[in-house]
Structures are given as structure tokens and as C-alpha cells.
Amino acid sequence: MLRRPARTTACAAALTGLIVLSGCSAFDEKSGGAAAPSDASDTARPSGCDGPAAPAYAGRATGFDEEARVEAGQAVGARVSTPVLSTKSAGIKGWAIAELPIKAEVVTNGVFAVGPDSFVLVDPAGKQCARPKSNPLTSPLGMTEVDEKRPGKGSVAFLVPQGAPLSRYKVLYNGKGGSTAEAAWSATGAAGAESAARSCSTTKSTLALEKGGPSIGFGRTATFGDADTVGHRVTVGVPAARPLQPSERHPNNVDGVALTVRVEAIGSVAFVDRNMFQLIDGAGTVCGYSQLGTEGENLTSDLVQVGKPKTYTMIFWVPKGSHLKGWKATYRHDTNAGTADAAWS
What we know:
0% of the residues lie in helices and 34% in strands. By secondary structure, the chain is mainly β. It has strands at residues 19-21, 62-63, 67-70, 76-80, 84-85, 95-106, 112-114, 119-122, 144-146, 152-161, 170-173, 183-186, 208-209, 215-216, 221-225, 231-236, 240-242, 254-266, 270-273, 277-280, 301-304, 310-319, 328-331, 339-340, 342-344. Strands 3, 4, 5, 6 and 10 form a five-stranded antiparallel β-sheet that branches. Strands 15, 16, 17, 18 and 22 form a five-stranded antiparallel β-sheet that branches. It has a four-stranded mixed β-sheet with strand order 2-12-11-8, with no helix packed on it. Residues 1-34 have low confidence and may be disordered.
């Protein structure tokens, strides 16, 4: 069962019940903005940012415009574009505004708050760049709620020396506001978290076909029990792609595969349950599903009456963007059994 996480921080106490993607800036003033760089001398030209040392990050940076996973359970995908010098004036001699475009979306499930405090611009010397007390950019990133249906985006403003070589700067994600960052982006970073998976999961199916059990093609019918007295017939259709709309009932990083099943009772009522069926990909791994039911499903458990066959649809999950083949579906009347009664492929 997927649970919607809940956590708050002092930086966003008003967002009760949300996980806050925002750490308090290490050099924010009470006004809510970062302290402006000093301009003590007309002749002094800043060579870098004058904030404190940046948080540490031990991993390999992600490339700009690539997705990095952040927060508990890596539930949120954040993308940071290459920082660029803005035409907006910094209002401080020798300094300019760097614009950092950001996008964030919920990859799994939950409600989160995305804010500018979590993102840190770092110069080549490892110093943090201050933020102006007010963001002068056209589309500023404020504190924004994101969930399965609502991504968030906007730009964060930083103060950098005029003419700063921003291609050499990097960006950190420091959602907890501590001394260690959760993610980093740079011009030399690696590909992001998204990739076309080659299997449904990492869990191999352990169900072997019971000796003598039918192994037949999709669309064909298997009969169990006695076809003349008491038994039942099961027909499994060809797995078909089923687009999924954003919902709290499934992760945002999956597509759907629909499996239709027809059950006919012979001589007595037949019991049918969602957990009797398993969908397996060509790599032999099990495709997941929700016990609560994904939108478009109509089977939890049911009784099929004699003379009144029923057709059900089940939705299984595959990684988003994957194109898997070699499907196999299994059926077992006893959901605790270690073998399948029949298999379709």
C-alpha cells in the first residue's frame, strides 16, 4: 500500500502535512533573502561568490537539464537547467543576476513543497552564491506544492560577479539544509535518473507450472475441475498497453498493461481473486500492481454464478517508457501455492 508521506520543517510551517523540499539557507537574513555581497571599494572587483563554503557532495554530478532524484525514497525528480546571466540588474556594483531555471515533479506518490532554499549555486572555488533579497526574474520559483498531478517550475536568482563563467559553476540540492547535499548538477555531469528499463522489476517469478498444467496461447481457455459436473473455465486475453493518468493510486513513473480475464462457472459458483493472476515479462520478472486497484480495474474478489460468466480487467505496472515483450500470465486457484495451475503466453 502506497502511503503519502508527511513531514514539515521550520522553513515552511504553514505547509502543514507536506514534505518540504527546502532547507533554511545558511546565510539568509531575517528579511527572508540572502545577505547582499559587500561593495566596500569602488576599485574591488569580485572574482567569485562570497557566501560560506558549499555543502559536501560525494556522488557524481548529474548533467544540467537531466533528472536527479531527491527527498525520502527519491520520490521527487528535479531538473536544473544551465544557469545564465540575466539582463535584470543586481543593483550592486560589480555583481550580476544569475538565473537558474528549475522543474520538479513527483515521481512516485505524495505531496511536497518545492522552494528556492533547497537549491545552491556554487562557484568554482566552492563558495555559495548569495540570493538577492527579492527575486527580480519574470517567473520566480516560490514555495510551490507539487503532487502526482501538479509539477512545479520557476527560476531562482543568485548574485554572481559580472561576467562570471557560469559554465564552471555547479548546483547542489540541499533540501535538509545540512552540511551534505543530496544531489548535484554540472556542465560535465552524467545522464539523469531516467532510463528505459528492460524488465518490470528486479523480482524474478518463482512460480513454476504445475505438472500437467496447461501452457497455452493468449486468448485460449483452460478448464479446471470437471467440465461436466463442477469446475470453471478461465480465458486470458493478450496483454495491452494502457495509458495511466497521474493519480495517487499508482506511482508517476509507471505505465499500465491491461490484462483481461473471462471466468465461467460450471456446476457451482466460482471464486475469483485479483491475487490469483500474475503477469511476467520476457526477463522473467514480476510486474507490480496495486492492492487498492489502479484506475480501470474491476477485479478485487468476486463470485461468478453458473450461467453468468464475467470478464474482468486487471492493470499491471511497467516502468514508464519501457517497451517490454515476451509476456506470460499465470493463474493459481490457491494464492498461497508455489505452483501455477496454468500459463498463457
